[in-house]
Write a structure and sequence with these properties.
Chain lengths: 243, 211
């Protein structure tokens, strides 16, 4: 594939896929408009089913093997490495949201962990008590008053919205590991990032299965609630209304 | 690849797991403050989870027993069910309401038991209660500390009931259980009415996989 040789090919391909998906979703969404927050529900449900089928057949067994057969120390290192990149984006987004304390802490974490923690493999900053925050572009847009926009479910990636998906694309295009010139190495690192994310949620799909009457609705509401909460930085939600 | 969407999903759903672990409770004691109660019950349950060989081995029946005896007496299931039903609650007959409470309750027991079986030695932190002395409806805040990761907030909506407190909502990382189920309930009621919802809940509790 030519995309493999082109340093930006991987991302370009990812974007192309997302564009196709968006188009499909938009077209399918025209058929029915179930709720305000999820106008593309029919297409999203198809995406959700595809996601679950792949998850059950391939992803979950593979991730379980990673968790079972990789030493904890290695997994911790992997998780710290990508957590360090998260901190970098937290710093940037804290600045964009006008939160100097979070900005300082996150930037401090990146400097300490990159400089003294073997490029982020060791999370010295947590041991030193520098709090980790969690800010991303989607939250920044939310703080700026941009609404979530339509809900979007993307196979292999999970729940998102137009707002959060835009934030994701910005990050995908700028993330430091994307600039590694050695393409196979870069792809391995991106693959590890994905494995790491999945490893963090091992066991939770079973719980959703247990709790949900309809897993699609359950995941959607949980995701939207969670994102609103993060935009509010945990300040109390308005009382649940009687709809 | 996306670190990002998954970490959100992770947060939301992991939070749910962790949360369910904590929703703790035991017979309400007179004049016990709501935050003290959450702490006591959480510690009691986690103590059992750590020391009971059957729970450790993943014995579902035994875990459910622990949830039934320790946790449930501290929940107000009528209020919880009414909140999850929203305006549909008033449309339900008293018999339907009773069945809804019973089925919802047993669904939550199964879910909590499943979550407890996934518990791995995590630390809990209890935050100071910010409420007036005379308050009858408070939010008790706790956190699950996970090394190298952001803590997961688990909050309990508590209401004064007689001389004790009862929990009517658990909010995990910002995800309110009651709000989450309101969507689910609405959807079932739209499709099959209140009886349809009761049937779905009952099927689910009999071990059906749901959708």
């Amino acid at each position: 594939m030519t995309a493999r040789r082109n340093p930006r090919g991987h991302r370009a391909a990812a974007v192309a896929r997302l564009t196709v998906l968006l188009t499909v979703v938009v077209l399918a969404g025209c058929a029915a408009a179930p709720t305000r927050s999820d106008p593309f529900e029919p297409a999203n449900r198809v995406a959700f089913d595809v996601h679950e089928a792949i998850d059950n057949a391939v992803v979950r067994p593979a991730i379980q093997a990673y968790v079972d057969y990789t030493p904890e120390l290695v997994r911790r290192g992997v998780s710290n490495f990508f957590g360090n990149i998260d901190d970098l984006y937290s710093a940037l987004n804290s600045a964009l949201q006008g939160k100097p304390d979070d900005f300082g802490n996150s930037l401090g974490r990146v400097m300490v962990n990159t400089g003294f923690g073997l490029a982020g493999l060791i999370d010295i900053a947590s041991d030193a008590g520098i709090p980790k925050s969690n800010e991303d572009f989607g939250q920044t847009f939310g703080v700026w008053g941009v609404p979530q926009g339509p809900y979007l479910f993307v196979p292999l990636f999970g729940p998102s919205t137009f707002r959060d998906g835009t934030g994701f694309l910005i990050r995908a295009y700028t993330t430091p590991t994307g600039f590694i010139p050695d393409v196979p190495l870069r792809n391995v690192i991106w693959g590890m990032a994905w494995v790491n994310e999945n490893a963090q949620v091992v066991g939770t799909s079973k719980l959703v299965e247990q709790a949900a009457l309809d897993r699609y609705t359950f995941v959607r509401r949980a995701y939207l609630q969670r994102r609103e909460y993060l935009v509010r930085d945990g300040r109390p939600a308005p009382e649940p209304e009687d709809e | 690849m996306n670190l990002f969407t998954f970490s959100r999903r992770a947060a939301a759903v992991t939070a749910m797991t962790a949360a369910l672990l904590l929703a703790a409770a035991a017979p309400a004691r007179a004049q016990e403050a709501p935050d003290a109660m959450v702490k006591r019950v959480s510690q009691e349950i986690l103590q059992i989870v750590k020391s009971d060989p059957k729970v450790q081995a993943g014995d579902q029946a035994r875990t459910r027993e622990v949830v039934e005896s320790k946790l449930l007496p501290n929940f107000d299931f009528t209020r919880m069910t009414a909140l999850a039903m929203g305006r549909n609650w008033r449309q339900a007959t008293p018999e339907q309401q009773q069945r809804l409470i019973t089925e919802f309750r047993s669904l939550l027991v199964r879910t909590y038991a499943g979550a407890l079986n996934q518990y791995r030695d995590q630390q809990l932190a209890y935050k100071p209660l910010r409420a007036e002395d005379k308050a009858t409806d408070v939010i008790v805040r706790t956190e699950v500390i996970r090394p190298g990761q952001q803590p997961v907030q688990i909050d309990y909506g508590m209401e004064k009931a007689g001389d004790g407190w009862k929990c009517y909502d658990v909010i995990v990382g910002g995800v309110s259980l009651v709000t989450n189920y309101r969507d689910e309930f609405n959807e079932q009621i739209r499709a099959g009415g209140i009886d349809g919802l009761i049937r779905t809940l009952a099927d689910k509790n009999k071990g059906g996989a749901g959708k």
